[in-house]
Write a structure and sequence with these properties.
β1 and β2 form a beta hairpin. It contains four helices and two strands, in the order ββαααα. The protein is α+β, with helices and mostly antiparallel strands.
Length: 143
């Protein structure tokens, strides 16, 4: 059996009826560390983790961080701006190649109309039945 020369902390999560539970085992060499010191460290560790878990479950605990968005390259400032503009943001995906190309072309043109984003306006005259128009528009979208 190897001789233990340092404090060893092994933690694991178990599922319980009340939700996940973090358990830990502290192993230490009795000739080097006192049991009371290790007990105090374990209590401080538990207190810190409990405070962290309590904070993380609050609605205003904070937003996303770069590690929460592994698919995009963004710093914390960019993420905070996105969260300001899009409240409730839960993730971000990179642009597809087509989106990236369309964005590139739209940024390097002086044309007043974006050729990739054409809008049509129809002026109708006479009596218009809004429900019938809505049904026709939905049928077009369904196709």
């Amino acid at each position: 059996m190897p001789v233990l020369s340092a404090l060893e902390v092994n933690s694991y999560v178990t599922d319980t009826a009340r939700g996940p539970r973090l358990d830990a085992t502290f192993t230490f060499p009795t000739g080097i560390l006192a049991k009371d010191d290790v007990q105090e460290l374990a209590e401080l560790w538990r207190t810190a983790l409990t405070a962290l878990a309590d904070h993380a479950t609050k609605p205003d605990a904070g937003g996303l961080t770069p590690s929460d968005l592994p698919l995009v390259s963004a710093d914390q400032g960019q993420i905070q701006e996105w969260e300001r503009v899009y409240p409730g943001l839960t993730g971000a995906w990179p642009l597809t190649p087509l989106q990236s190309g369309l964005l590139f072309h739209s940024k390097f043109t002086d044309a007043p109309v974006d050729a990739y984003q054409v809008q049509l306006v129809f002026h109708l005259s006479g009596q218009v039945d809004p429900e019938r128009m809505r049904t026709a528009g939905q049928a077009l979208l369904d196709r």
